[in-house]
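Q: Sequence in, structure out?
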Amino acid sequence: MTGEDLTTVMDTTGSDIEAAACKPCRRTGAIGLIFLALAALSGCASNDEELVETTPADVLYNQGLAAMQSGKPTQALKKFEDLDRQHPYSQLAKKSIMLQAYSNFERGAYIDTIQAGKRFVMLYPSDPDAAYAQYLVAESYQRQIPDITRDQAIAKEALDAYTELVTKWPSSEYAKDARVKIEMTRDQLAGKEMEIGRFYLSKARHLAAINRFKTVVSQYQTTRHIEEALARIVESYYALGVVSEAQTAAAVLGHNFPESQWYKDSYTLLKNGGYEPTENRSSWISKAFQGII
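A: Exactly. Output:
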């Protein structure tokens, strides 16, 4: 195709490139046409960039605060994002990241809250607001925890986030609530282990069941599931014929929870077989309650 042919095609399509730069190029041939067209587009892009207006940081910040106070977190978020983008190195940009996390949290956008909160903690770990940013991250995980029948990976994320908060900022005003939430989350995780353990037990898969109950005994002793976990261990070991471990689990259960119905049931199970609860202190069960494992 000749230069004149290419010019004819571009004339026919009425392209934007021609509108920007083709008229002066028709005498120079196709190669010159394309070169000048690209140059014209590049010039237009530069001009467009120069024409982009930025709003002063304090104006965007105050507009965002006003939107928050008016109960419009989505509108506030837009202002804080604009501030962060247009003035990335300003002091108000730092505050805007924190307020992005808060605005997202208020509108239930927990994934975005986690992203903004983690970013703030990473960039400004010694800032007075870092503890609150971490708290928003943990709360965002916690509010997404599903019921006990579903995967609890996000509960583990919540536990890690709360633990990081009380470890790094133990005296912060959010640490007390974080400690409460830690125990709640641990109970949730223990409950999941118990659910799976019961399932295995119902299928007579006693070793698999014991492994789940062992996790509760070893890692979640302070949860409400510990009594049942020990009783289920008694039941599982007894079914396998490993009587000494069943006796140890029952003894530990009776020592720590003598009035528990779970202990009474375990005691009856052993008694009917001609055994008594007896602790073997070299057993992993005994060591778990001695804090050895």
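Confidence is low (pLDDT under 50) at residues 1-52.
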